[in-house]
Amino acid sequence: MLDDDNFYDDAVDTLETFIGCGKKQKNNWETNIQVEDMNMDEKQYNSDELHSASNSYEEGTTRKYKEFNIDTDMDNPQFDVGMKFPSKKVLKQAIQIYGALRSYECKVVKNDKFRLSAKCKEGCKWRLYASLMQGENTYQIKSYTPKHSCSKGFHNKNITSTFLSQRYMSRIKDDPKIKKTTLQSEVHRELGYEVSTDQCYKAKRKAQTLIEGTYAQQYEKLWEYCEEIRQTNNGSSMLMKVDPPHFQRLYVCLDACKKGFIAGCRPLIGVDACHLKGTFQGQLLVAVGIDANDNIYPIAYAVAELESKDSWCWFLQLLIEDLGQVSEYGWTFISDQQKGLDKAFELVVPKASHRWCVRHLYGNFKEKFKGQALKDQLWSAAMSSNEVDFNCEMEKLRGLDEEAYGWLKNRDPNMWARHRFSPRTKCDMLLNNLCECFNSWILAARDKPILTMLEMIRCKIMRRLQVKRDLISKCEGPICPKIQGKLEKNKTLSHRFRPMYCGNGLFQVGDTLVDQHSVNLWTRTCSCRRWELNGIPCMHAVSTIFHNRQEAEQFVDKCYTPEAYLRAYSPVIQPVKSMK
Question: pTM of the predicted model, to two decimals?
Answer without folding.
Answer: 0.72
